[in-house]
Amino acid sequence: MEDLDADDTNQPLSDLLSELQILVSVSGGAASSSDPPPLSDSILSGLYSHLSASTGPSSLVSRLPSIDLSLSSLLRHLSSSIDSTSVKPSLHASFAYLSLLLSPSSPLVSLFSPLHFLSILRSLRRYLKNQAISSPDSTKQKPKTKAHSKFEQNRQPGDTSNLIVKVLGLISDLLTRIQLESYNDTRKSLIDTISEIMGSSHYHALSNSCFFILRIIVSESGHGDRGEATVEILRLLAPLMLLSIKSPVRVGVIGFIGREIVPLGNEDEGVKKALVFLPRFLANKAPEKVEPRACAVETILEITNVFNGEELLEFVDYVVKLAKGKPKLRLLAVDLILGLLNISKESDSGSSWRVVCLKALVERCSDTIAGIRARAIGNIAQVFGEMSDRREEIGMEGFSDMVRRRCSDEKAAVRKAALVLITKAMGLIGTVDASLLGVLGSACSDPLVSIRKAALLAISEVFRRFVDGNVTHEWLQAVPPLIVDNETSIRDECENLFLELVLNRICQFADLRPSGSPTSSDPLFSEPLLHFLKGVSDREVAPFIKKICTSLGKKKKLKPFVATSLQNIITASSSMHHAPEGAWWLLAEVSLYTPQAVDWRFLSHHWKLLGDAGRKEKLCRNDGEIETVLWARDRVSLLNTISNVSMELPSEPAGELAESLLSRIEQFNMHLSEVDAHVKSLMTIFKREAKTPEEGNMLVNKSSECLVSKATKALKLYLSKVSETKKESDFATPQSTRRTKGKSKSQSVSSPHIMQQAVTAVFTVGSVVVVCPTVNLHESSNDSLGLIPLLHTIITSESDNEPRLGVLSATTVSFKVVAPSLYVQSWATMAKICIADDKIAKRYIPLFVQELERSDLAALRNNIMVAMADFCVRYTALVDGYIPRIAKSLHDPCEVVRRQTFILLSRLLQRDYVKWRGVLFLRFLLSLVDDSEKITQLADFLFSTILKAKAPLLAYNSFIEVIYVLNGYQAQSSCDPANEPFPIEGMDERSKSKRMHIYIALLKQMAPEHLLATSAKLCAEILAAACDGLLNINNATGRAVLQDALQILACKEVRIQANTTSDTAEMDEEPVTDSAAATSAAGLALKGRIITQVAKKNLIQMAIPIFIELKHLLESQNSPLTGCLMDCLRSLLKDYKNEIDEILVADKQLQKELLYDMNKYEEAAKAVAKGNKGMNAVEERCKSVLRDVNQYKATPPLSAMSLPKVKGHVTGQSGGLGCSRPASVLDSVRRKQPFESDDEN
């Protein structure tokens, strides 16, 4: 039985030997076969199965002599099989070869062949290559059955991986028994193969075997120089170190270096040197993209963590030099410096290398590449603590100037980084000057949302640290206007910052108020508190503060302690003439949402106090006008506060207050700024006292009619006085004049009081109409004559065709001359009446338009413009026909009127009450070149943001018409001459520069395809029109149109810049992935190439023939525009200088002229550049001489200076200062006549 079992066990080996014997007999024996054939797949499979057992190799080797086959012959057959193209048989042959080679009875040293070993390595790489090729295809091919798919995808790769693991194990055993010292190529190939395996998808299964092989190569002394081996290993593993941070391959490689390479570096100098140079090698191999570059930086820093002090210093020197290299390396150096500075080592904390790194980082903040500047500034924000500690060592005297320049950088990423730096590192900047504050304020109105957010935080951080007057003023001018921003997050942040930095601070300063009576050395209120209160009530800021308080109140963020603190401040200022400026105004805004926090006794006391103080100041103080205005402003705010808290007032005091208000209003002797507040408070209290809304409305109507009736009487009284005075002056004689001299004197004393009472009465009527639009204005209760006819008489007193009232029918009085204030207020009140009554509006809107055009009072024109804007909202159809006439106010002589008109019309355009049609767009264009800087800034913002969003095609569609209109060329203008805007005519430089500014502003709003179409339209509609005679170039306006067209075609704004992107694209709010970025870049590149090709085609097929014909026409007329045309052609063709022969094939003469002009232009440019260098050298020389003079250094003698040597008249005589030319030569020179060559002409 035992013999039978032995026969069964040896049966596979016997069958394998039989097959081998057949193969040997077929091949002719071992000795005769120089190139043995490969083994069959069945034999290789049998060998693999047999040799996988522990005793398989020894049993097979012992039985080979029985079949007359030597081990060396079998190994040659196996080496032929290793080179097979089939992957699995090749791997089986590799396994069998290594197993037999490593068998105990095998003569390893004599049988080992490096060629056969290289074949094994090739089989491994062949397998990896096939896997890489088949992986994408396997996803496309559908398996026939699910079982077949499972077998192919799961079983087969797993079997092959196990086979590779066995092969790698045999290779590691082989390396322990042989030495590769004399086989350098074999060692390099082995390292290369291992690195490929580690970068493949089989890393998880094969990583241990690969790292074990690499450890043997490095640690064993018999495999060559350790330093050279380490260099080869690190060079081939470098791409794996630059993989993603979370990649297991990268983690494994870094771990291998830390476990194996670093300890060997302490023993071997070559390994240590290779390890020291590894970070430099990785720095040169680092990719440019953001995420891979960050991984490279992380890897380099992990390796440098094991460096000692000297090695770290060497690497720091290398990084600093890297910061001055190519852009890619500079960007990497900036990130490396940040990582090096974050290394916390006690031994290096005070070393000088950190200062060197900080200096290099500061230098990169002024790099020529925007991305490097932004990155350096952002990195400084992360190490600002250390930089502030080493300010003197780094030399950061001009750091604040650098930050200011970067805040106004042309690139959005740099601006944002600088603003973030200010937010995080105010300690680095130190004091903030006015220029930096101005830059931060301007950044708050940047077109990009991200820049506005960063600027908001930056200027708020400055305001948080410094509370002086300049910072407070700039913050209040920049931040509160952001409450009307389109971005919700900016509005919310604006509200929160106002609550934190203004309202809460006011409360804190109120609590810190010193106790006791104030002295000169101990003021009652701190200076920051006074700045806050005065700033929030500023006329330009107040509307935005109102919006902020309204939003905070609706969100219930306004707390009662704010109103309480303001009351405490006002109460504490009782000893002063008035409360701090702005305190009452802010209390009025806050009290609307915190009415319960306002004490009625406080309001009652100050109501009496302000009244008495106001009357006393009017009578006693010399500067009564200024004090009266402050008093009136506080009184208005007090009345608004009372109106806000009227629901909380007791009934009896409320009734007394209403009687007091009504009596004051009926006297018509208040300051006009108080009237609205008095009327509003009175009507609010009436509604408060009423039991039902109907009763409240009845009380309001009754009191309103009473006020209107008394105002009508006051106005009629004044009109009768004016009529009587006019009659007496018309029929007066010299004797009567002397007799009535005393009487006239008395009338002159009372007349101003009556006129002021009439003005206040008219203004009061307007306030009443706003509060109660249903009040009866047509008839008075005591007289059939109402208020509207009186107002009509006043506002039409300049017209001779209007009927007169009875009191003025006998004479004509011009109230514009007699009482201009009454005349202006009558128009304002009539406008309020028209808003309330549409029937009256239909009759009087034409009068408003007429007065707007002919009035010489700037205040009246401004008021009418405001009224027309309200009419446009209320009666859009009525006003729409007058828009061209209203738009003429954009060119009003008064800057205030122009700015008011621009703002109002812009708001109407945004709300679609007015459309961009007719001449309105053309009139708006002239605001771009207005004499007022504020108006030009508003116009630039309108055209760059609002217009671009509302009407993106308007600039393109109107461009040709704009050229004709601005030059005043009526033949091609489609505008009505009566409504045409003021043209900027003329060939002078000022007019041309203004027109070009407008053209460039329009070109900047166009897309690339519209720029291309605009160029074609300029050629077809202006240049071709000039060639065909449709454009008359014999007159000045026609020549101006043609010259403008040529200059536009020559300017850089009309050219297509295919390789540039906008700031908005540069500052994406969300970071894009590498694939998305690559796709976007490829799309932009493709679009750029297409646009460039179309532009070239358009130039060759359309523009050049027109230019040639136009040149011949201009030359035939000896036109001065020929030079302008040649300049335009030179500018158009400078990018196609090598293709001019092809483009200008139809006109060889023009081709030669253009080439000549281009060469001359380039030579002139070089000469100018050289001249600038020469001027700089002269300037430096002058500075050096001045420095010598300042240092009391004597000027060197003339003999010590280097002078040019000149030949003398006599041969051999050296020239000098005393040398002179003979008289005959000088006379001949004088007799020569000057001439001008054709070339110079």
From TrEMBL:
The alphabetical list of record keywords is: Cell cycle, Cell division, Coiled coil, DNA condensation, Mitosis, Nucleus
A GO BP term, please? meiotic chromosome condensation
Q: Among its keywords, does the record have Cell division?
A: yes
Its chief place of residence is nucleus
The chain's coiled-coil residues are: 1126-1195
Q: GO molecular function terms here? A: histone binding
Every copy of the Condensin complex subunit 1 C-terminal domain together lies at 860-1020
Where is the secretion signal located?
none
Give the UniProt subcellular location, in the record's own words: Nucleus
A GO CC term attached to the entry:
condensed chromosome, centromeric region
The region called Disordered is annotated at 132-157, 728-751, 1212-1241
Give the PANTHER family listed for this entry: CONDENSIN, CONDENSIN-2 COMPLEX SUBUNIT D3
Q: What is this protein called?
A: Condensin complex subunit 1 C-terminal domain-containing protein
Tell me what organism the protein belongs to: Rhynchospora breviuscula
Organism lineage string: Eukaryota, Viridiplantae, Streptophyta, Embryophyta, Tracheophyta
